[in-house]
Design a protein that fits this description.
- The chain is of the alpha+beta class and about 210 residues long.
- The protein has one domain: Jelly Rolls.
- Strands 1, 2, 3, 4, 6, 9 and 11 form a seven-stranded mixed β-sheet that branches. Strands 8-7-10-5-12 form a five-stranded antiparallel β-sheet, with no helix packed on it.
- The chain is globular.
């Protein structure tokens, strides 16, 4: 199995985080920490995906103008057949009122905690590297986790909310930091959202939906 697409995708993740760290007012320490942790990953011992990869139309539905995000989208398309795409029921199956979200959100990891790693996703206790697909007109409700999380928007614009801040529209190439325990939510409108999520602390911590 040719694992080069997975390596290429991880290398591009490092590149966009390092570039983001050079922006004015960026959370540089967190971005550089994420880049360094991803740089330490190796896919030499990765295996075949454990589940049938999802052939998701959203990966081919975008044209992206931001150069870094466009490169990430191309690399994700190339690596996707190696990756095990999953639905979100593993985390939210018991939550009430989550049916529409669970049916329209999927994710695949390149690095995950040992108990969840498998296939091309390598085991790591220090970093989580995940790619997400959120369908159009889907609300990812307020949730929180102990992990410090960096989001990078690859394709599609979406509304983002952090803590008590107002909703903000985010675009390809944007970087969003969620500090430990920060409540956050995402809302798509007429187009899907493709994003990268990087956990740089507490990668085995659970995700909790925050109810009003």
């Amino acid at each position: 199995m040719n694992l080069q697409p997975a390596t290429d995708l991880a290398n591009l993740a490092v590149k966009v985080l390092e570039a983001g760290a050079r922006r004015p007012f960026a959370p540089s320490a967190e971005l550089l920490s994420g880049a360094e942790l991803i740089r330490g990953l190796s896919f030499d011992n990765a295996s075949e995906p454990q589940s049938q990869p999802i052939v998701d139309r959203y990966l081919d539905s975008h044209q992206v103008n931001d150069p870094g995000a466009a490169a990430m989208l191309a690399a994700l398309r190339a690596a996707s057949p190696l990756m095990s795409w999953n639905d979100i029921h593993d985390g939210y199956g018991g939550e009430p009122g989550m049916e529409h979200f669970c049916q329209n959100f999927s994710f695949a990891a390149l690095a995950a905690p040992p108990r969840w790693a498998g296939g091309v996703a390598v085991a790591s206790k220090t970093v989580g590297l995940t790619f997400t697909l959120q369908g159009p007109d889907v609300y990812y409700p307020d949730h929180a986790h102990k992990a410090v999380e960096i989001y990078y928007v690859i394709a599609g614009k979406a509304l983002w909310k952090r803590g008590g801040e107002p909703w903000v529209e985010r675009y390809p190439g944007d970087i969003i930091l969620h500090t430990a325990g920060m409540r956050h939510a995402m809302q798509t409108r007429g187009e899907p959202l493709i994003a990268m999520a990087v956990w740089i602390t507490d990668v085995e911590s659970p995700i909790a939906v925050v109810r009003a």
